[in-house]
Structures are given as structure tokens and as C-alpha cells.
TrEMBL record:
Its main location: membrane. Keywords: Amino-acid transport, Cell membrane, Membrane, Transmembrane, Transmembrane helix, Transport. It is found in: Cell membrane. This is Amino acid/amide ABC transporter membrane protein 1, HAAT family. One of its GO terms (cellular component) is plasma membrane. It comes from Desulfatibacillum alkenivorans DSM 16219. It comes from the Bacteria. The chain crosses the membrane at residues 6-26, 62-81, 93-116, 136-160, 191-216, 236-259, 266-286. One of its GO terms (biological process) is amino acid transport.
Length: 292
């Protein structure tokens, strides 16, 4: 029983770390623009599918393919902001949300046309054996995901607290008009926020592809669960994204293991409803969503 519980926890932590990276994308963008990008999951999908093209089809070294994927998806995020978001004459929140939903549909269709409907398998990044801990097994790929997510959160926290650019982005989140009066280029900060958020989506896609395979429609549910994780931890909070992702992943794994596999997708939305009812600002609260 303990071995089974530990195995579910390992699986839950792995999935939770993926949700946390996607939640980081939501929180990063929301912190700088007050916009929720419901196309974030499709940028995860683009990261996974581009890895197939660059690493498996073109034979590029994995580190180079990884960097190129993140840069390419970040560039796609910049193009999306310039063409679809900045050109809106009346940028009401509901209008911008509808635009991001439309973008998600467009990107999903683009993925289907470019890579087809069939799932594409990607081998593990590591040729190592599974790590045995108290009778349960942890994949090296899973350990890589957890370590990478922790480094990302720490690096982003340092960026926002210690660098001028990060502080400028935080200022735009607090009061965009006041930041503009102080000489901060708010449009440039918004552009950087889109590039950073979509780049994080690409990182999530690259990391999850060897575990779930890459498909054109993988981003829809991943994006929604990433959003649930961001809301659970506190939308706009970096450490909240990590906490929310891990809690969601563990809750899913335990629900599937001890209740029913049919609850896997429902658990995310049950947790979202629960946190909205008990603490609408999330676990870390509203203050963290603006001050990091």
C-alpha cells in the first residue's frame, strides 16, 4: 500500500510540475498585462511539435533544439501580441479573452495541418534506468522536470525582484499609466511578457512530450489545468504557480489511483471551484500576485 501511494505521489509531482510551468506562463503575463491568455496551452503544443521537427526529423542536438524551440515559440508569442492584441482599438478584458480563445483554435488547426492528427512519440532525454525509492520508481525524465521547474521559479523570482527590467514589468502590473509617466516603455514590457509567457509554454511542451507524446490537440486540457493551477496558487504569484501545480498534480494522481480514473480531468475543476469559494485570491493571496 505504501509503495502504491508513493508511486502515485511520484506521478502526481511530475504532472504537477508540468502544470506549474504552464501556470507560470499565465501568472507572468497576468502580472504585466492583467490579461489571461487562454491560448497558452496551444503554445505548449507548439513547443512539443517543434521539438519533434528539430530533434527527431532534422537531427539537431537536443540542447540546440531545446533553445531553438523556446526562441521560436517566444517569437510566435511576440507576433501574436503585435498582430492580435496591440491592434485592438478598445482593449476591454472580455474582448481580449475572446481573441485569445480564437487564437487557441487557430493554433490548434495549424498544428493539425502541419503535423497531422496522429500522436508523435518522443524518446526520453535520458538513457538511465528508473530510480527506485522504497519500492516505487521515479523516472529520470520526471526528476529533470521537477528540478527544471524549481530553477525556473527561482530564476523568475530573481528577475522580478533584482533586475531593473523585472521591476519595470512589476510597475506596469501595479499601474501602467504611472509606469508610463516614469518613462517605462509599457508596450515593450507587454511584448516581453508575451515572449516570456509563451517561451515558458514551450519549455512545458518540450518537457512533457516524452511522457505524453505530442499531438495537435494536447494543449487544450493542459492549458485549462495550468490555469486551474495558477488560480489555485494565486494568479500572478510565481511560487503560487508552483504550489498550485503540485497540489493539482498530486490530487489528480491520488484521485485516479484510489477513486476512479474517470475523475482525472474533473478534479482540476472541482479544486478550482473549491478555491474560488473558500479563497478567491488563491493560496498565496492577491498581494503576492502584484508584488511577487
Amino acid at each position: 500500500m505504501m509503495q502504491e501511494l508513493l508511486q502515485y505521489l511520484f506521478g502526481g509531482i511530475t504532472n504537477g510540475a508540468i502544470y506549474a510551468v504552464i501556470a507560470l506562463g499565465f501568472s507572468t503575463l497576468y502580472s504585466a498585462t492583467d490579461l489571461i491568455n487562454f491560448a497558452q496551452g496551444e503554445f505548449v503544443m507548439l513547443g512539443a511539435l517543434l521539438l519533434v521537427t528539430l530533434w527527431l526529423n532534422l537531427g539537431l542536438p537536443l540542447p540546440l533544439a531545446f533553445v531553438l524551440v523556446v526562441l521560436a515559440v517566444g517569437l510566435a508569442g511576440i507576433i501574436f501580441e503585435r498582430l492580435a492584441i496591440r491592434t485592438v482599438s478598445k482593449p476591454d478584458p472580455i474582448v481580449l479573452v475572446i481573441i485569445t480563445v480564437g487564437a487557441s483554435i487557430f493554433l490548434r488547426g495549424l498544428g493539425m495541418v502541419g503535423w497531422g492528427r496522429d500522436p508523435l512519440a518522443i524518446p526520453s532525454f535520458f538513457k538511465l534506468d528508473s530510480i527506485e525509492i522504497a519500492g516505487a520508481y521515479l523516472l529520470p525524465q520526471s526528476l529533470f522536470i521537477v528540478i527544471t521547474v524549481t530553477i525556473l521559479v527561482a530564476a523568475l523570482t530573481f528577475f522580478y525582484k533584482k533586475t531593473l527590467t523585472g521591476k519595470a514589468m512589476s510597475a506596469c502590473a501595479i499601474n501602467k499609466k504611472a509606469a508610463s509617466l516614469l518613462g517605462i516603455g509599457t508596450e515593450r514590457m507587454t511584448l516581453m511578457a508575451f515572449a516570456l509567457a509563451t517561451g515558458l509554454g514551450a519549455v512545458a511542451g518540450v518537457m512533457i512530450a516524452p511522457i505524453t507524446m505530442a499531438t495537435y490537440d494536447m494543449g487544450s486540457m493542459l492549458g485549462l489545468k495550468g490555469f486551474c493551477a495558477a488560480m489555485l496558487g494565486g494568479l500572478g504569484s510565481l511560487w503560487g504557480a508552483l504550489i498550485g501545480g503540485l497540489l493539482l498534480g498530486i490530487a489528480e494522481a491520488l484521485g485516479v489511483g484510489f477513486v476512479s480514473s474517470g475523475l482525472k480531468d474533473a478534479i482540476a475543476f472541482l479544486l478550482l471551484l473549491l478555491i474560488l469559494y473558500i479563497r478567491p485570491t488563491g493560496i498565496l493571496g492577491a498581494k503576492s500576485s502584484h508584488r511577487f
